[in-house]
Structure formats: C-alpha cells, structure tokens
Amino acid sequence: MNKLFIHHAFFRLLAGLVVGVMVYLLILLINNTLGNINTIFSNEELYVCIGLSYISFESMRLVEIVLKRIQSVQGDNRLIFIQTIATLAVSLLLVSFAISFYFKLRLGFSIGSSELNLFLAIYFFVGILYNLLYFSQYYLQLENKELITQETKLREKVDADFFSFRNDINPDLLYESLENLILTVHHDSYRAEEQIDYLAGVYRYMLLNRHKELVSYREELDSAKNLLALLNFKYRDCLKLQSNVEDEERIHLLPGSLMITIDAAVRNTLISEKSPLNILIYQEDEYIVLQHQLNDKLVPHSASIDSFNRLQRGYSFFSDHTFVQVKAGNQNYIKFPAIGVTQTVEETL
Questions:
Q1: Which residues sit opposite 244 in a β-bridge?
Q2: Angle in degrees, 0-180, between the axes of helices 257-267 and 189-209, rounded to the nearest 10
Q3: Which H helix or E strand runs over 70?
Q4: Which class is 170-348 in CATH?
Q5: Below-50 pLDDT ranges, the chain
Q6: What is the pLDDT of residues 53-86, one digit of tens each?
Q7: How far apart are CA 101 and CA 95, in angstroms?
Q8: pTM above 0.90, yes or no
C-alpha cells in the first residue's frame, strides 16, 4: 500500500494498451463503422490510439509526481481540484500535439476540428477516470495509514499499561517478601507481622498512586523507607537511607521513582554486613540525587534497565532535564529532575 497503483510497472504497461484498444473501438462506434471493423481495421490507427493512451497516462503520472513534491500543494485541501486541472491540461495538450503531428507527418494534411475534438473529448473522460481511480486509492491509503497508526498507538498503550502494571506489582519483590515471610513466621511471629505491615504499606502506596502523574517527595521518601525496612528483613539491616532534601512538599517526583531506583540498587549491588549499602539522597541544582557506593554484581538485573528507561520516558514529559545515571569512581549517582509544583497546579492534578 506504500506505492500507488499508477506507479506500478504492470499498470503502466497494461493500462495504455487496454485503454488504447477501447478508444479505437469507441471511435469506430461513434463513426458508425464498428460493424465493418473486419474490412476497415487498421493496425496503424490502433497503434496511434495506444500511443496516445500511453502519452496521456504517463503525462498525468509525471504531473502527479511533480505536485507531490510540492509540499504546500500536497497538504492543501484543493489538491483534488489542482491535480485534476493540471493533469487534464497537460494530457490534452500533449494528445492534441501528438495527433496533429501524426496527421500532418503521416497523412500529409491537418486534422479536422471535429476529429480533434473527438479525440480530446475521449481523452478528457479518460483523464477524469484516471483521477478518480488515483484519488480513490490515495484517500483509501490515507485512511488505512490512519487505522494502522491508531492500531499501533493502541498496541503501544496496551504494552505500556501492561509494563506499568507489572512494574507496580513488582513480582520479584512480592515473591521474595513472601519467601522471607514463610521463613520468619515459624520462628518470630512479631517480626512476621512487622514484615506484613511493611509489605502492605509498599503495595498500598503502589496501587493508590499508580494513576497519579506526580507525588510529593515526602510521600516518595516515606514509601522508600517502608521498602527499605521490608528489604532489611532479608539483608539483616545492611541497608541505610539518609535524606538531606529541604522543601520536601514542594518538590515532586513520578510515583514510585525512589522505590524503583532503590530496588534496582539493591538488586545490582553485592551486600553484606561488612559491605552495607548506604544510600544518600540530596538536592543538587535542579536535581534530586540518589547516591550509593558501587559494588556491582556480576550479572545485572535486566528488569532494572527497563524500569530506568520507563522513568526516563516519564520524566521527559514533565521536565526539560533528563533522568540520568552516572557512575564516577566508586560511586553511583542517579539523578531525578526536581519538579516544582505550585499549589494551584497541584490542585488540578
């Protein structure tokens, strides 16, 4: 569907031949000589009609190509009128010149006005039919492209919604927490209840804020502390978090930003009692920076890369600054654009 039918070699070869034969038969019919075709049939006249048809079609095709390259005309609502007039004018002019040249050169006399008008009238309707066929496929192609675009956007939305839902649920965290809970509940019911409370808090925050565009830094920090407390059941209190951000209510982040990055940092870092993970969050110019020491695992967690790409796409809608991760020396810096939201804007969200 990317290529219109008038540009296909098969159409260009066949159309002139078929239309030329039909034009020849039509001329015989108009002159009331169709019944005597066996006696008056002329190969030369038939070839002339076929040649005129090729001239008509190719000239109209070239006009269409020229107009298509003129963007101002291509995008104009008067495209149909302009192209129809232009193709008919060029086609009839060339047909008129060609038939006149044939009569004078081959037959030795000028073509009569009635014969010329007959040829021009026939090729006028041929041009109209050509343009009708062209615009029918042209607008059908536009409609199909629009449908394909809508289908692509719908598929991308479904994929994005599924990815967002999967990210909100975070099955890895859920399964690991349940496994730790199974191990804990048989030995320490009090710690098991604490673990359930933290797990419920983490997923309650995810589900309640999944449809919000932005949340305050304070809300994000509270959820990150719940996540860290939950993870510390597995890592034996080797995870520490310190925040030095002022004006926590004015600064906003995408929901789940801190939890996603902290979860990624934990899953990609070797952690032990002798090598704990200390996370520091502070403000630097227009960014909220999450910093921790590098101690990478041998195999990176693939889901973390997808989550970071999702955050990068999300922040591009709300800030001119980009979500970035920078590794320098033995430190990892994850920078979130600090989005400031006024009270009036916040009320509309």
A1: 282
A2: 130
A3: none
A4: alpha beta
A5: 1, 73-74, 162, 165-166, 343-349
A6: 888 888 888 888 888 777 554 455 677 788 888 8
A7: 10
A8: no
